[in-house]
Amino acid sequence: MNAITFPKPPPSPEAEILRAEVREFLHTELAGRDARSKAESWSGHDAEFSRKLGAKGWIGMTWPKQYGGHERSALERYVVMEETLAAGAPVSLHWVADRQSGVQILKIGTEEQKQKILPKIAAGECCFCIGMSEPDSGSDLASTRTKATRVQGGWLVNGTKLWTSSAHLADYMILFCRTGSVDSTDRHAGTTQFLVDMKTTTGMQIRPVYALSGAHHFNEVVFTDAFLPEDALLGTEGAGWKQVTGELAFERSGPERFLSTFGLVVELMRVLGRDPSERAAIALGRLQAHFITLRRMSRSISGMLQQGLEPANHAAMVKDLGTTLEQEIPEIARTLITNEPTAETTEDFLAVLAHSMLHAPSFSLRGGTREILRGMIARGLGLR
Amino acid sequence: MPEETDMLRETATRVFADHFAPRDLGAVEAGHWPQAGWAAVEDAGLTRALVPEEAGGYGVDPAEALSILRAAGGAAVPLPLAETMMASWLLAQAGLAIPDGTLSVAPVLPGDSLFATRDGDGWRITGTASRIPWGRSVGAIAVLAEGPDGMVVAMVPSGGWTVTISTNLAREPRDRLTFDAVVPRAAVGATEVDAAQLQRLGAAARCQQMSGAMDHILALTLQYALDRKQFGKPIGKFQAVQQNLAIMASQTAAASAAADLAAEAVGHGMGITPIAAAKVRCGEAAGTVASLGHAVHGAIGFTYEHSLHYFTKRLWSWRDEFGGETEWALLLGRAAAERGPERFWADMTTL
Ligand SMILES: Cc1cc2nc3c(=O)[nH]c(=O)nc-3n(C[C@H](O)[C@H](O)[C@H](O)COP(=O)(O)OP(=O)(O)OC[C@H]3O[C@@H](n4cnc5c(N)ncnc54)[C@H](O)[C@@H]3O)c2cc1C
């Protein structure tokens, strides 16, 4: 797989039929939502919406039917993802589970774990959070210090996870932590993944961490002798590093990495009107050229996933290019309209501009920083 | 189908590798015409790749045909290959015979018009057109002219125009031609193609060429980063250099994806949106890739002796030809605004 080549996405007539259905559903379901809440993009949380999407069969779409899946193609799943994002649907309850946690369980989970959890995810009733980062372990994930120690009947976990999005809402966390001692010859050794039941586990404290906008998205999760039963082990003890890098490839591969501020472009178009200035039209046309190209690349990745490939470097490229675009959009939009966003503003465009500006810095941090992604690409080029 | 694409492009790549080493590129810039190279390109049938089967072509998908130009861009092939392919396509569209030898098209600037008027049993072609690629060198030009009853294509052999020399930054001929030619009736045919469509075909062709040039610049720069040592190690071991190469790789990949979209559009009604988007995106990538390519190469890459400039100069020229980023972005933006925010997303999903 040449990292520079993004093969033509395979045609999928069934995906286009599905698209019309999804649009109609979203049109009805989102009718009452204002522009500001649509701007939440994939951080918007709405249990009822996720349940309805699940009832439609649009979560866990590619998974086997025996686990509540629908055995549809990656390209059909892509249509649901991009349509929900473009419409500003509140997808955060199921997003992480559908994108990576469920996939991980399907790949390496026990039969019991699959049967217990996957149908709930597919129904849109099971929220997952990602327990990777820690106070002293960000980009350098292998330096994790949270530790699970074997005890009678299971494990005791001690340590702190940080920046854990949706931990306060989640049913489960996939926890990445240390189970062996630090090996100076192999820093990836001795790490393991666990399925943590967020509702019943004792010895676990979830504290909100407020984002600069004042919003509560992420948390600190402190484990103090938190007991995990034997069957909380996910995959193989000691294989955590290999597993977590596989999980990260899924985390980075989707259209949410270039559509986070798409809603701002739509609002911008509304205020620019049908006959914008030349300068505004040029800026808008350029943004469209970027969207069209990124969508092509992202669908190409979806085609590769469909073939069973793991295009991690391709995903890193799309995430780097995509988050750059997402971050540029508010910067460009503000130069085209001479009106300052305020905290109280009720005008749609300004409200969405304010929201986008206040969230943009995170786009190139969450899911792996820009520099880390570029490091991966450089490794793919043979430089590291 | 993919195998065929690969075969065509592989043939092209081989022919180009045989004939266009950096030394040959320098000779062409000094005014030498690479006759052997041209003959090999023509013998391999590359010039006819865009001609439909019913007009004597091979019936390859236009997207595959255009991929030859990606290989050509990757070798900085100093020949009117894209232009001969386009002219052959234009002549075939009008039901005209396609001559052997080098060809070009006119006009190429939106403001330029050429005219066809009846002259006895034949036609008289007049008017002035600027920036005609390879105008001074080619054997004939497929002229898209305004006739008394609509657009026509005329096959005008050399001698039918006078030349005011002009060149692009890469020293490729981009001449101002004043036509005054009388051609026989059989050399003129009515056409459905208009200047805007010709512009789009040209843009799609330049996107492929730019994509190929970026492929090559990335490969050159990567190799240089592995070979060149400073502070006791290859400069590619420095993280700052690695990050620059990663940016180049992503921009090159984006340009390649965009250029593919444009090439596919050529075979599907020459849709304006994908082609405009591709020219904007490839043009933008071209600036970044050229700039970082030079940054990593240091002073040696700034010399005439090093081959990097054959590719970066072409990028700087090609991104402006057949419409630069600003023109295409304006078209895109106006069309999107006109259709309104509610259709913005839906329109993109039809591509
Ligand atoms: C909104 C948001 C939501 C998040 N949600 C989650 C979540 O749900 N679960 C979770 O586990 N994590 C989550 N994260 C954490 C995220 O994964 C980390 O922020 C990210 O991995 C970077 O770690 P850090 O913040 O500690 O920065 P650091 O790793 O300390 O990096 C700081 C700076 O140094 C640079 N840097 C670090 N190492 C290198 C290197 N080797 N080479 C070059 N530069 C380097 C980085 O690129 C960055 O610019 C979230 C973050 C945000 C902003």
Structure description:
The complex is a heterodimer of chains A (384) and B (351). Chain A has 384 residues and is an alpha+beta fold. Chain A has 3 domains: 13-126, Butyryl-Coa Dehydrogenase, subunit A, domain 1 (Orthogonal Bundle); 130-239, Butyryl-CoA Dehydrogenase, subunit A, domain 2; 253-380, Butyryl-CoA Dehydrogenase, subunit A, domain 3, CATH 1.20.140.10. In chain A, 47% of the residues lie in helices and 14% in strands. In chain A, β6 (204-210) and β7 form a beta hairpin. With 351 residues, chain B is of the alpha+beta class. Chain B has 2 domains: 2-190, Butyryl-CoA Dehydrogenase, subunit A, domain 2 (Beta Barrel), CATH 2.40.110; 195-348, Butyryl-CoA Dehydrogenase, subunit A, domain 3, CATH 1.20.140.10. Chain B has 11 helices and 10 strands. Chain B has helices at 2-19, 22-29, 35-43, 62-74, 81-93, 195-227, 239-266, 272-297, 308-318, 325-339, 341-348; strands at 103-106, 115-119, 122-133, 140-147, 150-157, 161-164, 174-183, 188-190, 229-230, 233-234. In chain B, the strands form 3 sheets. In chain B, strands 1-4-5-8 form a 4-stranded mixed β-sheet, with helices on one face. A 4-stranded antiparallel β-sheet of chain B has the order 2-3-7-6, with no helix packed on it. The model of chain B has no long low-confidence stretch (mean pLDDT 96). The complex binds flavin-adenine dinucleotide.
